[in-house]
Amino acid sequence: MKCKAAVAWGPGQPLKIEEVDVQDPQAGEVLVRMVATGVCHTDAFTLSGDDPEGVFPAILGHEGAGVVEAVGEGVTTLKPGDHVIPLYTAECGECKFCKSGKTNLCSAVRETQGKGLMPDGTSRFSIDGQPIFHYMGTSTFSEYSVVPEIALAKIQVDAPLEKVCLLGCGITTGIGAVLNTAKVEEGATVAVFGLGGIGLSVLQGARMAGAARIIAIDINEAKFEMARQFGATDCVNPKDFDAPIQQVIVDMTDGGVDYSFECIGNVQLMRSALECCHKGWGESIVIGVAGAGQEISTRPFQLVTGRVWKGSAFGGVKGRSQLPGYVEDYMNGKIEIDPFVTHTMGLEDINEAFELMHKGESIRTVILF
Ligand code: NAD
Ligand code: AHE
Ligand code: ZN
């Protein structure tokens, strides 16, 4: 079949709307008609050329929701008409990772996914015979996408896809990092670096966990109003201080926070986030994604004296088994999504969504197909 998709032809180039050929789903694969997709900073990161796994030409996008159009041979858990959220972290349930009970990372399709290919090593997208790469196993910037069965979460049909698409990445990542990775306790002190879709979701998670003090940090003060709505008790602009931001936070909190979260992708701030943690027990969670060649550093003494450095992918959430519960929590009012959708537009305007993000004017733009 043919459909419209936004194609990234090369690093740093605007996306181009193209008519692409989409091959039928093969064994274990599913054809999804995309209804909506968010635009996450990671899409911009890969488009910039900084992603070591970035390959071009590709169809980006990984925060989508849609409806099953057709299934390939052997697909048993999904049928046409089912509502689904594509998962960049699959859940096969059978690999060493899935069985470990220690991680949401699944190894079943991760290797080919990182190369922009389906599990059989080929692409389902092409233009005039030229293969176009997949992205994160999801490629949601396309009217139709082919996704492995094990990378689709089946969700309730009454959930609005133009909202719950954000559970495909940003909101789940932030809330999950608090509840699953850090396991923030009631009464804890928390610092959140970066107040985009991820940071604001961390705030939401911290409020759900009953954190007593939540310090929100950003250089764009326009983000502070929403941060307060999501539970921030203090908003801090590092530019207002001569001292390093970690020192500012330590001074504000009688020795440091119990938990910090880096939601920017800046290795200097990853260090700040670690070093603003309390001696003896403070834990810092890296969520932000940093470019090729960048590394984190700190004095080992920071760790020797009890601070813990951790990372979190998709909030530690196992997509097939746990994401339907997040959708349910949205439907019954436990998770907020609507205020995150600051802009909506059609696929033809997708480059504007990237501009709004870069200018710091959006939290999430949702593309409606
Ligand atoms: P975003 O662009 O919407 O938000 C980033 C925020 O950081 C903005 O508010 C910006 O003003 C702020 N910021 C930038 N530089 C700053 C600085 N020097 N000091 C303080 N604040 C600063 O991005 P997002 O979509 O929220 O994503 C945030 C990060 O999380 C990105 O690196 C993204 O790739 C990553 N991410 C990781 C996962 C994961 O599973 N680990 C999932 C989604 C996104
Ligand atoms: N490809 C990059 C890493 C990108 C990355 O860390 N991705 C996050 C999700 S960001 C979603 O917005 C993630 O889940 N990583 C775990 C995984 O398996 O990809 C690189 O550095 O090579
Ligand atoms: Zn994302």
From TrEMBL:
PROSITE patterns per record? ADH_ZINC
Protein's job: Has high formaldehyde dehydrogenase activity in the presence of glutathione and catalyzes the oxidation of normal alcohols in a reaction that is not GSH-dependent. In addition, hemithiolacetals other than those formed from GSH, including omega-thiol fatty acids, also are substrates. Also acts as a S-nitroso-glutathione reductase by catalyzing the NADH-dependent reduction of S-nitrosoglutathione.
Give the domain of life.
Bacteria
The record's listing under SUPFAM superfamilies reads:
GroES-like, NAD(P)-binding Rossmann-fold domains
EC number annotated for this UniProt entry? 1.1.1.284
Is Zinc found in the keyword set? yes
GO CC, one annotated term: cytosol
GO process terms (BP): formaldehyde catabolic process
Q: Which family does it belong to?
A: Belongs to the zinc-containing alcohol dehydrogenase family. Class-III subfamily.
NCBIfam families in the record: adh_III_F_hyde
What cofactor does its activity depend on? Zn(2+)
Q: Name one Pfam family in it.
A: ADH_zinc_N
Catalyzed reactions: S-nitrosoglutathione + NADH + H(+) = S-(hydroxysulfenamide)glutathione + NAD(+); a primary alcohol + NAD(+) = an aldehyde + NADH + H(+); S-(hydroxymethyl)glutathione + NAD(+) = S-formylglutathione + NADH + H(+); a secondary alcohol + NAD(+) = a ketone + NADH + H(+)
Indicate the segments forming the Enoyl reductase (ER) domain, all copies: 12-368
Question: Entry's InterPro entries?
Answer: ADH-like_C, ADH-like_N, ADH_3, ADH_Zn_CS, ER, GroES-like_sf, NAD(P)-bd_dom_sf
What are the record keywords, sorted?
Metal-binding, NAD, Oxidoreductase, Zinc
The record ties this protein, via PANTHER family, to: ALCOHOL DEHYDROGENASE (PTHR43880), ALCOHOL DEHYDROGENASE CLASS-3 (PTHR43880:SF12)
Name of the protein this chain belongs to: S-(hydroxymethyl)glutathione dehydrogenase
Lineage of producing organism = Bacteria, Pseudomonadati, Pseudomonadota, Gammaproteobacteria, Oceanospirillales
A Gene Ontology molecular function term of the record:
S-(hydroxymethyl)glutathione dehydrogenase (NADP+) activity
